[in-house]
Sequence to fold (259 residues):
Amino acid sequence: MLLPPLALGFRLLALFGLWGMLVLSGGRDSYGGELGSEIVESGVDTSSGNEFEWSVGYDSHYIFRGEFLQYSTFWTELSYEWEINDTLSLGVTPWFLQSAIADYDEWNFLVDLTATLGETEFTLGYAGFWYPRGDVGAGVGEGSEHEFSVGASRSLGPLTVGVLSAWNYNRDGFYYELSVEYERELSDSLMLTPMVTSGWDHKYYDNGGGWNHMAFLLKVDWAVSSRLTVSPYVAENITSARLENRNDFFGGIQIAMEF
Fold:
């Protein structure tokens, strides 16, 4: 759906206004917070400067923001992080997914600007989604979609708490998410991370709104070397009636190399 310039301006203003409230209240960026290929973040340390990271992965279920889309998918991405200064960084990530059992593929292009202030990170993001088959999931949706997001993350003792708000231009709907994760170092090369996320929306999936899903994830990051990390995970995703009352238990693996 195309919006008049004035309506588009009001929605962007509301989105950036929410970011301003997050700055005042603290919180977290959990862009992605989604299950499937983008929930498993690399355990490789990328804090040393401008760097590329190449990742490949497999997911038994492709689930994005609580919504089941496909079974058995492979994906790959190439991420570049540019450290603008001590507090600002810009990330650019092209991403591709292909189903192993269905005629489905997907291209994403992600851009995020992150500001680090003490223990808190604030992020502004853009995501473009392109569906070469002209649909998404079970044949419903747009040939392409565009989203703008704001988020924040903050360490609270041993926990990292995050919030996210995303506005989908094509759907003219909002998605909101809260996440909590805990990192436990098992050894010099192994990190265990349990994570819980819960999502709400307003006209994001349909004309309704409210709570839509809760997800539980457990992953292990194995730093094979200083530049190579292997991250298997298992997860459970529980949805509301608006997302078909599904209860999916699934898993996958990511391999990430920094260079």
Q: What stands out?
A: The chain has a mean pLDDT of 83.
